[in-house]
Fold these 4 entries.
Entry 1:
Amino acid sequence: MTAKKVCSYQDVLDYLNMTRDNNKLQLSRPVLDHTHPTVIEMDLILYALLAVIEKTQTFIPFVWVSMMWQNEFISWDPEQFCGITHVSVPKDLLWRPDLFIYEMVQKDDSPQNSFMYLSHNGIISSEEDVRVISTCKMDVYKFPFDTQKCNITIGSAIHSANEIRMIPFSNSSRATQFSQEIIRTQGEWEFIHLSVVPLNFSYQKRQWEQLIYTFTIKRRPFLHVINFLLPILFFLSLDLASFFISDCRGEKLGFKVTVLLAISVLLLILNDILPCMSNNTPLIATYCIVIFALMLLSLLETILVTYLIERDSTTKKKLQQQIDYEEQEHSDDSYSAAGLLVFVQGNSSSQCRESQVLLLILDELKGLQKTQKLHLSPREEVVRPILLARRINRCFFTFYVITVSLFLSLIFCAWML
């Protein structure tokens, strides 16, 4: 009876002479002919969206990276080693491509996989999870209804396209599907699409090759709408409602000032959210500034109306005092005319009777003239400031409602397009 042959992974490693002292497997690109390029098949799948920081324009995804290439110095017959087709070896025993991420701004300090798989035909597979802290040029014009596209560009630092060829293992649709299936957390952002595009460019008379992975993500705006957009809209509604408060009371002016200060606080919060530099003014900034300007204009209109009403009250008091004074003088003149009439009656004659009639007629005319002067003209002067204030209030309210309606319609249409 033939004894069953027993094999171990170490037998394969001994056969390949895979030790830390074997520089042939570590120092140079593993090809028998230096003109033969090493083809690297790469796959990158999104595992989680950790953070997107608009203030510093930083994109932090957690990705799964897989690479495969061939080492032409390595091969064995599985039949000689009990059918062993794969062994795992430490990464520092074999040559690895010097690939790096161009947008990386901070070294990844997450735990790394220190092993890789080696196949009997020389195919090496390396897989690892990478927390990428990269820069991303963000367009916050439609914040918080914006969609961002952030790139992860992978390429070699020293090997040109003649030495290393990079091809994607999965196309864009397959990479998107895999990412949507395994993604664990997205937070504020929703993952939409992952595309991969190879790029060749020339630099210092050499051709270089890269793979560009583009992540398309969309912000979930619900939190910002609830915490920011709606409060500003509520403050605007309160400002509109303040037009129904009586202008004769001082509470209206204080109310408008309080609402304006509340908007100022929200503008400070917005300044902490948005990045310092942006190509275009964000729509949310336009939204806040225009509403702030309209409320400021409303406050100035209230100040003007309040001034006209106070001026009306002061003018009314002065004119009333003047009316009382002139009525007193008219009463004194009436007493003088009555005394003169008694004197004339004491010297009665035919001529005196005619003079008496003339005096009575003259007295009545003077009375009518003073009454018209004191009671008609002053009242017209008193009514003018009140009418002016009411007309200003009515016209401004119409202008305010029309302007707010048009502006909100335009701004929300621009957000949704």
Entry 2:
Amino acid sequence: MLVKDFMTPNPQVVTPEASVPEAAQLMKKGGFRRLPVVKDGRLVGIVTDRDLKEAMPSDASSLSIWELHYLIAQLKVGEIMTPDPITIGENLPLQAAAKLMLEHKVGGLPVVREGQLVGIVTVSDVLRAYLAREAELLKEAGA
């Protein structure tokens, strides 16, 4: 089982210049929790739903709602992203991706080929692969 067989190819991306609300909207609309950040075709970072939540002001802020919206709209993804994220190659075994995610306590990895983003693989993808393999083994045992 290789990473390329279970990754999501050509994932949605943002640039470092994208606004935080823009990234949040893309993530909400797409139903995903992480966005690779690409500049000039190269992967430069990753932004997660957690990064976005941490960038939001506290409820205890003394700023007005309009001031908060203005400040958040000015905040760019490049300011809150994780630069140079851990990546994996598409032709590596899926087990290698699972090991990296466990070791680094991340839920997903950008998949790259020669520095170019080609996909993203997540814990959910690893679980899907595991369940597919289990189903195959059960089918073989019953045959």
Entry 3:
Amino acid sequence: MRLTVWIFTAILLLSMSVSTGITKPVGEDLYGPLKRFSQAMDMIERQYVRDVSRDELINGAIRGMLQDLDPHSTFMTADEFKEMRIGTSGEFSGIGIEISLRNGRLTVISPIEDTPAYKAGLKAGDTILEIDGETTQDITLIEAVRRIRGPKGSEIILTILHKDATAPEQISIKRDTIPIIGAKGEVLEDGYLYLRLTRFHEHTTQEMRQLINEYSAKHKLEGIVLDLRNNPGGLLDQAVSVADTFLSDGNVVYIQGRNPKNRKDFNARKSSKDITVPMVVLINAGSASASEIVAGALQDHNRALLIGERTFGKATVQSVIPLSDGSGIKLTTALYYTPSGRSIQAEGIVPDLIYPFEPPREKADNGLHMIREKDLQGHIENATHAEGAAAGGATEEALEMLSRDNQLRLALQLVKKLPDLKAIK
């Protein structure tokens, strides 16, 4: 059995090497590591305390192999792969919360407005201790998402520790259809539109353009504040098309893998629908990946003024590759670069005007600080460094946002002054 597995694995790896053009480095022992892997799997199958299927062992080996590469390469079972694809589609059934793992705790990042979670009183910073009576200790993020989502109308019971509470609370929530909204809009003042992009899913650009068109059809558009704060990213093509909305030509981003000949450029195309009004872009440590592509392109082309904090610093590109049994892998295959050739991997984009809004890391009142790419274990180092819009005037919601958001208030003031500043320059 051991010899069969070893020979099969060796043949598989050799065939992959031939098909991808990868050659064995001189002096590297190709067969020794495969033999060691075969011996370990055979020992587990024969001596482990309980029966373990070969599928479990192989899946675990693939998962561990990818996790050791960098924080963003991962293996997904068939169910997990399906959940991942749902995350970039138009809607799903669930309760409407964004979650993350912080210090090993399943934490609510934010409830989506007007969803069951929002109406049930879940708030940012709440810790989910149990899902339907089962502990969330050591749970993976993908598994948590799978357990929270479910058929419309079904009930889920969460044990929640609110951020400021001393005792947990059980909350019963009925699942519903949750639309994935990528763009929201408000009128800040006559002529000035606030656009918030919450994520880059397959309809984000369409939603954003619709907000702009609805306002422009009845009013003269004078300026835009584009809010990318706490936007974790998403689809590369949507980042390119969002940036293209505000650029007439030139490079938006290019990606480069291990082979220098495989560079791929994504360029803006001139269109009569291009938006040319003055722009201010808001960014912070939660702006990552696709958000950084948009911010970097607009900054390099001097198209917008960036205000806020240094961004997350994720400039790696993941390819999603389905496997034969319905599972899949997400593999880091390239780095992306801004139009000027900057790699912001583990460094982030520095805004033109640094204007912190959140407390300093050491003074955060909830004991948590904003984590960036460089804080993730196993992150890829930076190679270059190592070497709905409403009509009319401001809405009540916009006025409330302006009253409590210093960055947004500053952005509005500056976007109104940009034409004068450019004339002086």
Entry 4:
Amino acid sequence: MESLKECMKNHQIRALTQIAESGSIRAAARAMHLSQSSLTKALRELEEDVGAELLVRSYKGIEFTLAGQALLTHARLALSVLDKAREEIRLIRGGAGAHVAIALSPLLAIEVLPKVSMAFTQLQPDAELSLSEGFLSSLVPALLEGRLDFAVAIADPADLPYELVFEPLAPVVALPAGRRGHPLAGARSWEALKEATWVMNFSAGSQSETLVAWLRENGHPMPRKIVKCTSPMLMAELMRRTDMVGFCPTTLLDDETYGSGLHRFEIEPLPPPMALGLITLRGVPLSSAARPLAALFVRQLKVE
């Protein structure tokens, strides 16, 4: 009887996550090959179990309550962990098809990722690897819901929720830069750059966000005009082809491809470096495929 109860709970949790993915009870029922009444019953039983309303209907359709949103995050993580456990068992029994999903700072594309990718292919030739850019705004919910195995990104540990563990691996120094021949190429202070148009990435926890906070806290002139951009490629091209100024990690400026046509501004003082590190979910072990991949990143960054 207890096992039947646990099985029903698993079914309810899958129903909840499917509703979130499908956008409606009807579409979720169709995706799960169930009747709407069966799915609605499972949802009501889940609401009774947790003692809270999880969904409400509005003119927009189905919306999750605050309780529903909280449960959905944990439900997605629980199902992800269960799926990874099944994958582990399949691999132990000789099956193939391990999958690792990670988010990486664009900085790693310069030298670290190519080396790690080749080494990982030798270790796990049959593993499928999924990569995404490591911006905190997207990687934090993805890690909390189990959609990512781990991330290697720039972060301030104080900005991360308790559920995530940050292992610092390398400092990241950044400074202002613009095109070669820039009219402000001789600038030596923040005051000299205050009239410049800046192109900045203001994703949560980004170096640009940290720079602006540091300028304000230390009484330096603030940029008066800012173009917001989350694409490293677009930022680089705007810096190369216009008079826009960016705040760039020296790792990118040192690269002969990315840094081509760019000039560093010798500005002082500079804000302290931020940390690039490994971000994992607290209390959840990495899979047998993700574990060696994370170790490769750690080893390579400590060498660099």
